[in-house]
TrEMBL record:
Organism: Streptomyces galbus
Coiled-coil annotated spans: none
Membrane topology note: Multi-pass membrane protein
Protein's name according to its UniProt entry: Branched-chain amino acid ABC transporter permease
Keyword hit for Transmembrane helix: yes
One Pfam entry name: BPD_transp_2
Main location group: membrane
Keyword terms of this UniProt record: Cell membrane, Membrane, Transmembrane, Transmembrane helix
Record's subcellular location: Cell membrane
Membrane-spanning residues: 32-51, 71-92, 104-124, 136-157, 202-224, 230-251, 285-306, 311-330, 342-361, 373-392, 434-452, 486-506, 526-553, 560-578
Length: 608
């Protein structure tokens, strides 16, 4: 009898399915290159990158980073921290409970992209690499070394699926592309952080305050970017940095803390937002801030209709126009045919009530429709409103809205002797006109947030969600679908009208062109719907973040000229392709798109 024996595998033999990196370097060497290269990039930010101050940001100073150097410095420091966390350094493991190596890859990639973008742009703007100083060469080399290091970090490769030889060349190409994309996703896959340890309540409060302070700093820096290159670098660092913190588990931990203290988080967020005008030396960026708040408030109202009730409304901006025109007509404007001047509280309530009445009148005969049919009807209502106010000029119709000229010279608000059009000094800080309106609009936003939160947690809110998930099943369970949908439509219209009553005084003039379905400048119905979908339907913070991005990014991308909307549209397409649930998704909706995501132990009533 012959006995066959199998020789044992040698320790150096590769094991099938064993983790490996993109580059065949040992994992310890790759980790050292990533951490050391990032540290060297931090040092390079304190050196001059060019010899002339003609390049924006003045990158000629030694020992004091400026402009894009600051962004590379932030990315480098984050990469160093994550690199040290990947070694299991005590303390950093509790700060980054997720996958430090996956987070390190994103942080290094963002730092590399920002540094090389700056170096290439300096060479292009100033006429060649001869204009680079040693700091630029050092940061380019350091970030390249760090990138090589993270590409060597091992990960578990997905099992390749065989290609059907009968497939067409296009199908085979698509198969290979999907397989490569699966490898890329696996390279940055991260484990879910475990349950957070019990901490004293004051520690959670300090964490929330720190998060709001960081958010205020990031927003203030982004809105105050002075030139195009700086804003592009800001987007790169913020995007990759947020992704790195999410992979590291820090975002999940902070989200768990804010979920335990929802009221405190909301108060802290609005306090941080109220401090924004006090961080500005003039009224330039407060102007952008107040328009963002108007846009965000209307988007949050639309979120009730679309995000909670699941009704596709393509003419929602008309309710904003109803509130604005109603308030303008009773504002005391010389262009108003009514020639009356009501106090703000009365005009705001009137604008909200009239918008709600329009919502009921439009919703009553149309809300029995579903899906695309309802969308077409609401789109028609939006256009009917714009054409109607355009024709009320005394020639084509009654003289009410002054036609295409609109209602102009709307006076500034004066509430209890506080003139919003004048500068005021508070605690040594000077607040100009738009800063005053920013604080007023912030109060309106707070009211809308409270209404949204209380509504979503109520019996009506649960009925909205049931209608959104399956209207037929909800009707079978005894929910009056028509009445519930009409309440959502009326409430959303009311909140939009309330925001419109403030918008009329901020813009001085109300014209029909401001309330189109699609336009370059938000708010319009297309941008409002995009803000809800982009930010995350059914959440409070999602539409607020989505509206801020949709207003701020087009304003900062004007250097692209005629290609601005093309670049913006491509960015939205890519985001919806790779993150269809939105930036800050509803938890239930996230589970619908990502079945492999671990389900939370408890879902809120709205599914967050």
């Amino acid at each position: 009898m012959t006995t066959q024996t199998t020789a044992p595998l040698s320790p150096s033999a590769p094991v099938e399915g064993a983790p490996k990196g993109f580059i065949g370097l040992p994992a310890p060497l790759g980790r050292a290159l990533a951490t050391g290269g990032s540290a060297l990039a931090v040092v390079a930010t304190f050196l001059a990158w060019t010899w002339t101050s003609e390049y924006p940001g003045d990158l000629t100073v030694y020992g004091y980073p400026g402009g894009l150097q600051v962004l590379v410095l932030i990315g480098g420091l984050l990469s160093v921290l994550l690199g040290l966390a990947s070694y299991g350094l005590w303390g950093l493991g509790r700060l980054f409970p997720g996958s430090a190596e996956s987070a390190l890859k994103l942080a290094v990639l963002g730092t590399f992209a920002t540094a090389w973008y700056t170096v290439v742009d300096i060479s292009a703007e100033l006429g060649g690499v001869v204009n680079l100083e040693p700091g630029a060469y050092l940061v380019a080399l350091a970030t390249l070394v760090a990138l090589v290091g993270v590409l060597a970090l091992p990960f578990t490769w997905p099992e390749p699926e065989p290609i059907d030889p009968e497939d067409t060349s296009w199908e085979q190409f698509k198969h290979r592309w999907l397989q490569n994309w699966a490898v890329v996703k696996a390279s940055v896959a991260a484990k879910s952080p475990g349950p957070a340890p019990q901490r004293p309540p004051f520690v959670d409060i300090l964490v929330i305050i720190a998060v709001m302070a960081v958010g205020l700093i990031v927003f203030t820096y982004g809105i105050g970017t002075e030139y195009d290159q700086q804003f592009i670098g800001f987007l790169i660092i913020v995007g990759f940095g947020f992704g790195a913190l999410a992979k590291a588990g820090l975002v999940a931990r902070v989200s768990a803390i804010t979920a335990r203290h929802r009221t405190l988080t909301m108060i802290s967020a609005f306090v941080a937002a109220a401090l924004f005008p006090f961080t500005q030396s003039d009224d330039q960026y407060a102007t952008i801030g107040v328009y963002i708040l108007i846009f965000a408030t209307v988007a949050l109202g639309l979120n009730i209709v679309v995000g909670l009730a699941g009704l596709l409304d393509l003419g929602y901006v008309a309710f904003l126009g109803v509130g604005a025109y109603t308030s303008a007509l009773v504002s005391g404007s010389p262009s108003s045919p009514l020639h009356v001047q009501w106090p703000f509280w009365a005009s705001a309530l009137l604008g909200a009530v009239v918008a709600m009445i329009f919502g009921v009148l439009i919703g009553a005969p149309t809300l029995r429709l579903r899906g695309d049919y309802l969308a077409i009807v609401t789109l028609g209502f939006g256009e009917i409103f714009r054409i109607t106010v355009l024709n009320m000029d005394g020639t084509s119709g009654p003289d009410v809205t002054n036609g295409s000229n609109g209602i102009s010279s709307i006076p500034n608000l004066d509430i209890l002797g506080f003139d919003f059009g004048q500068e005021h000094t508070i605690l040594g800080f000077t607040l100009a006109r738009f800063a005053n309106y920013f604080l007023l609009m912030l109060l309106i936003t707070l009211i809308v947030v409270v209404v949204f939160r209380r509504s979503s947690d109520s019996r009506i809110g649960r009925a909205w969600i049931a209608i959104r998930e399956d209207e037929t099943a909800a009707l079978a369970m005894g929910i009056n679908g028509f009445r519930v949908k009409l309440i959502a439509f009326a409430l959303g219209a009311c909140l939009a009208g309330l925001a419109g009553s403030v918008q009329a005084h901020v813009t001085y003039t109300v014209t029909p062109e401001q309330y189109q379905f699609a336009h370059v400048v938000p708010p319009n119905s297309a941008f409002l719907l995009a803000a809800v979908v982009l930010g995350g339907m059914g959440t409070i913070s999602g539409p607020l973040v989505g509206a801020a991005l949709l207003y701020l990014i087009p304003a900062k991308l004007q250097f692209l000229g005629n290609y601005q909307l093309l670049a913006f549209g491509l960015a939205l397409v890519l985001l919806m392709r790779f993150r269809p649930e939105g930036l800050i998704p509803n938890r239930r909706r996230q589970l619908e798109f990502h079945e492999e995501t671990e389900a939370p132990a408890v879902l809120t009533k709205a599914g967050a």
